[in-house]
Amino acid sequence: MSCALLRDAMGRSGKAAIARFVMRSKEYLAEVLAGGDALVLETLFYADEIRDPHQETGDLPGRVDLSPCELQMASRLIDAMIGQRHPSDYRDTYTDRSTTSSKPRGTTKSSGPRAKRRPKRM
Length: 122
What we know:
Radius of gyration: 24 Å
Strand content: 15-25%
Distance between the termini: 57 Å
């Protein structure tokens, strides 16, 4: 009940809260905001974690003069890519690849030495 009250009040006000929490022995900075039927926690960066891209790489393009036609074409491309997205549309392919590459070919997560059943001894 109290979380629902906080969520609804934050949603109506359009405001968010700043929080700190510890996970895996590291302190994180986060924003808590109302999101649908839940309170949403989004991690943020501390000031010392933000790097200046101009100091990291010297060949950034900077401001470029673009024609109205180029901007219109880019806007159309962006609009064509907009659609409903669901969390199930995305997979952690990095983890999938790393767990697959560390196993012998032809095995699955449930196969391998640990998955084999030993015959019962009578």
